[in-house]
Amino acid sequence: MGLRSFFDRIEPQFLKGGRYEKFFPVYEMVESFIYTPKTVTTAAPHARSYIDMKRIMTYVVLATIPCILFGMYNTGLQTNMAIAEYGASGWRAAIIETLGIGFDPNNPFANIMHGLLYFLPIYVVTLVAGGIFEVIFAVVRGHEVNEGFLVTSMLYTLILPATTPLWQVALGIIFGVVIGKEVFGGTGKNFLNPALVGRAFLYFAYPAYMSGDSIWTPVDGFSGATALAIGASDGVAAFPERGIEWMDAFVGTIQGSFGETSTLAILIGLAFLLIVKIANWRLIVGCLGGMIAFSTLLNWIGSDTNPMFAMPWYWHLVIGGYAFGLAFMVTEPVSASHTNMGRYIYGALIGFMVVMIRVINPAFPEGMMLAILFGNVFAPLIDHFVVQANIKRRAKRNV
Fold it and tell me: What is the DSSP letter of 184?
């Protein structure tokens, strides 16, 4: 008996009046994951499009693949370099030694495999913990399990440090799914980015695990500051002294979260999203424009006490979570503005806010997460004023 026949045979048990009627969302989730949904619209008008929710989410996940691969490589690279000085310990080191892979930072395969042993547990915990609550809400509400969680889980994993305890990983994604999305009605109805909501919850609930110099490389005793932390304390001029050149930051061989360090990998993913028309270029132009304009203004103003005033826009672009947030979160269609002019304003607001938080708030050197959440909150208001302005302009034209 084929798999298709098996699904057809058990389907009546999950339909209305069937024994497992309440669990239809679970059946639909598994069946539609393997096969194309056979449901069609039943009333006119019909809109034909090759883009559906599943394809959109698949494209976004595909766009993150360069970040995933480089994130594993860089995590393994930073870890193996630290092991050379501090030594190896733990079950991951035991696996590496058993397989005979070694800890040579000059061996790309050794770096990727070591990084995989940190990436995979975090991703699996994210999928299981968040997926359980996705299914619970789907069963209670009687709607299908949406593919949007695949994107949320991937983005959430990529913005976490490799040292994040797995129980915190689970707690953060549950908070992001429930508070950031499901309480508002689920995928398509959330006005906040769920992955960022989960990350923000962990940052404010457990700041010692989400900030500082010791969280980026999972080796006991190792401490290494991110480029943003160095810039906040000593300025851009200190980067070469600490072994960080602009090209290092662009390629991504620096301290940071899994998927945020490589601007090159991020731009590859962004280019793909633009080609398949998932990302809207107006959001990108607005965010880049706001960041470049405000950082340039602060460069011109200058400061004798705050070295971050001197950081040029091209350094803001390649350090911290700016590039990752620009590519995968600013462009998220649900929580962003929906009018064309609103997209420019929304993007510019985030670009302005990230520089303001990084430069003027000394307690929080990274600002992209808060800037995007701030923009999410104001997106509906921005669209409202844009629409009202269009109505008034048309009304005057027709007087």
Answer: G
- Which own/partner pairs from 292-298 qualify as long-range (CB within 8 Å, at least 24 positions apart)? 292/351, 293/348, 293/351, 293/352, 294/351, 294/352, 294/355, 294/356, 295/355, 295/359, 298/355, 298/359
What's the length of the chain?
Answer: 399
Q: pLDDT of 342-399, one tens digit each? A: 999 999 999 999 999 999 986 777 889 999 999 999 999 999 999 999 999 988 887 6
Q: How far is CA 235 from CA 229, 239, 296, 303, in A?
A: 9, 8, 16, 11
* Mean predicted confidence (pLDDT) in 169-196: 88
Amino acid identity for residue 23 in this structure: F
Is 194 in contact with 176 (CB distance < 8 Å)?
yes
Sign of the torsion angle spanned by Cα atoms 280, 158, 308, 372: positive
Q: What is the pTM of this model?
A: 0.88
C-alpha pair distances (Å), 304 with each of 231, 232, 299, 308: 14, 13, 12, 10
| Tens of pLDDT, residues 63-75 | 999 999 999 999 9
